[in-house]
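Q: Here's a chain of 298 amino acids. Please give me its 3D structure as tokens.
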Amino acid sequence: MVDDDRCGPISSGVRVIRDYLSLIRAANCVIAAAAVWVGAWLVTQAFPILPVALTSIAAFLVCAAGNILNDVVDIEIDRINRPNRALVRQMVTVPRAKLLVVAINLGAILVSLFVSLMVSGVVFLSVVLLFWYNLKLKHIPVAGNMVIALLSALTFVVGGMAVDPYLLARLPGPLVPAAYALLFHFVREMIKDVEDMEGDRQAGVRTLPQRIGKSPTLALALSIYLLLVLLTLVPIYFGWFGRMYEIITVYVVDLPLMALLIFVWGNPTPRLLRIGSTALKIGMLLGLVALVLGGQQI
């Protein structure tokens, strides 16, 4: 028989870990950390491990702190849009969450100082931008979306910077996935704004879909995604990456997501919007895989 007294604390501990992983949105943080490694890989496949590892840890921590701060600021909105969030369910207290934001951000900056002043400068800028976004810019249509998109692009740039800042502008290099990430996240942010319209409206947050409407916002997101698809073909034209890049990018990511986004635009139900947002996140991961498996051809 199972001893309930012994399993109780274990079960409770698992729930606490799960709540904190949910609070930081661990999957998003892992993607941010992985993007740093891909940025380094695109500078040189013989990159030094330690500075890249430290930079990826810093990226993970900045992302985690930003997500916690977002939940603190949006707790009333999340009672409507995201009732399962840890702060809404009071599994983590707001004072503790605020303390975590400060501690994790300081940890990220400290870790980055062991890489270089340039990398730590980007990390500090990212922290500032996330505070600015959560406290001000998220209430300004498009501006807030663009900041999040820019921060996602910076993960690739800072990865290359940790290896050799003088090779950042070389093509192909970190600037290629940075451009993809900028557009990719911008599209996802607009879809999330449409998904969160009801909670944002009740909280008095004026997002783009509330100003121009749901269908025009999704049409704009679809147009930007089409631009992204065209940009992903550039490395194929110039022969920068191998066959695996083409297969994954075009046939596994670009075309299926384009079809899905067209379907979401035509029928923007809450369920389809959620599926579209999730599919875009999966697409980001597959994009990282495409870049690594594609390798560098020049």
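Q: Can you summarize the key feature?
A: Residues 168 and 245 are 21 Å apart (CA to CA).
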